[in-house]
Amino acid sequence: MKRHKVLVVGQTPPPYGGQAIMIDNLLRANFKHVSLYHVRMAFSTDMDEIGKFKLAKVFTLLKLISRIIYMRFRYSLEVLYYPPAGPDKTPMFRDIIILTCTRWLFKKCIFHFHAGGISTLHSGLSTPLKLLFQKAYFFPDAAIRISDFNPADGVHFKCRKEYIIPNGLEDSRSIVAAKRSRNPEAPVNILFVGFVKESKGALILLEACRLLQERNLSFTVTVMGKFESAEFKKIILDKVSQSGIAHLVSFVGVQTGEQKFSFYQQADIFCFPSFFESETFGLVLLEAMQFELPIVSTNWRGIPSVVTDGQNGFLVPVKNAQLVAQKLELLIQDKALRETMGKTGREMYLKYFTQEKFNESMEKVFVEVANY
Questions:
Q1: Per-residue pLDDT at 182
Q2: Dist. CA 200–CA 14, nearest whole Å
Q3: How many angstroms separate the CA atoms of 105 and 69, rounded?
Q4: Helical H runs in 221-334?
Q5: Any residues with CB less than 8 A from the CB of 129 and at least 6 apart, and which?
Q6: Residue extent(s) of CATH 3.40.50.2000 domains in the chain
Q7: Which of 305, 309, 267, 258 is CA-nearest to residue 286?
Q8: Which residue in 81, 182, 183, 370 is deepest, having the highest Cβ count within 10 Å?
Q9: How far from the centroid of its chain's Cα atoms is residue 117's Cα?
């Protein structure tokens, strides 16, 4: 069988966002019938730089376009794989420039919507911008959506064929030593992992913790991730201080590798009350499921395709600290429920969300598109 060549254009860590991690994992895959080539997007080295304009990014953009053109002809590549931006105009303009300059060089184009909602910008653009938008995004040969619950960007762009492929991850539980026995009297530890910004639910979580403390429940909170900005960090720390929960909350920053997963191992509950504008899936939810953590999250975008309410966790409406607190209270007070939901989550991960299953699905798409 012919070996197909695909050019992957995308960010790899750092920063350690979900999209960068997934593209890095994709590039590591050992496909039987596909060879991947990579042009790295390097516009941001940290999470707080993503989506923000800097003059240096203009030069990076020009180098990126030149590199794509070079790779296309140097290795006779015919399939372009590209992850469009979310619903933010700055990266939208970046996409438009890159795609209008390079997409026409390839026989086939695959869009993978790791961020969701870019199509919602279309109707609000001026007529000239609409034409450029359509030239860049419309009529891809394939569109990959991570969940049925996410915006149907590819359908809006009149893709030739749409695929639904959930994310998958390598099992990280083996990275850390076996879970140590815990003191049954120790407080229940609630873990949050993600970019610490308002739309990821950081303030909602802290308000829920204030409510839990008023109910005299025994718990602690660990927040892992980088603050969106110095200004938002001050807002968070002021909230913690004013709520009287400073002694309960630990901020541990960005962690990677074994150190990162040791925090999952030491946790009892995972809380992710996101309403992030580009949310599509939440890789951190899969990591929590690997470590048998029950989850409290939101009924937002693709999250319900990972968390089934009442089975491996609870889903609540966005921006509802009262209900987040209510579901956390149930789990804090019921160890058996935590264990049952955690085991269910682990089983769901192994059945649906492994790296192997993801790689199989992706290779199938690459081969099908190359053979259209």
A1: 66
A2: 20
A3: 8
A4: 230-243, 257-266, 283-290, 321-333
A5: none
A6: 4-168+354-371, 173-352
A7: 305
A8: 81
A9: 14
Cα angle 209, 149, 156; round to 5: 135
- Report residue 293 CA to chain centroid gap: 18
196: phi then psi, degrees, rounded to nearest 5: -85, 95
Judge contact between 360 and 31, C-beta under 8 A: no
The angle that helices 127-137 and 89-102 make with each other, rounded to 10 degrees, is 60
Judged by average pLDDT, the poorest of 45-54, 64-73, 214-223, 305-314 is 45-54
> The CATH number of 4-168+354-371 is which of 1.10.760.10, 3.40.630.30, 3.40.1350.10, 3.40.50.2000?
3.40.50.2000
Q: What is the DSSP letter of 2?
A: P
Tally Cβ neighbours within 10 Å of residue 211.
17
Nearest one of 77, 87, 73 to 110, comparing CA atoms: 77
Token pair in block for residue 16 = 């350690």
Q: Which of 83-92, 127-136, 174-183, 319-328 has the lowest mean pLDDT?
A: 174-183
- pLDDT > 90? residue 43: no
Q: How confident is the model at residue 57 (pLDDT cuts 50, 70, 90)?
A: confident
Q: Which one of 3.40.50.800, 3.40.50.1820, 3.40.50.2000, 3.40.50.10300 gives the CATH number of domain 173-352?
A: 3.40.50.2000
| The one-letter amino acid at 305 | S
Checking if the pLDDT of 178 tops 80, the result is no
**Each residue of 5-15: b (16+ CB within 10 Å) or e?**
bbbbbbbbeeb
What is the C-alpha separation between 167 and 274, in angstroms, rounded?
A: 18
Which runs of consecutive H residues, i.e. helices, occur in 75-143? Answer: 89-102, 127-137
CB atoms within 10 A of CB 186: 10
Residue type, 72: R
Question: How distant, in Å, are the alpha carbons of 203, 228, 299 from that of 275?
Answer: 12, 15, 9
Chain length of the chain:
372
Amino acid at 299: N
Instruction: Evaluate whether 296 touches 221 at the Cβ level (below 8 Å).
Output: no
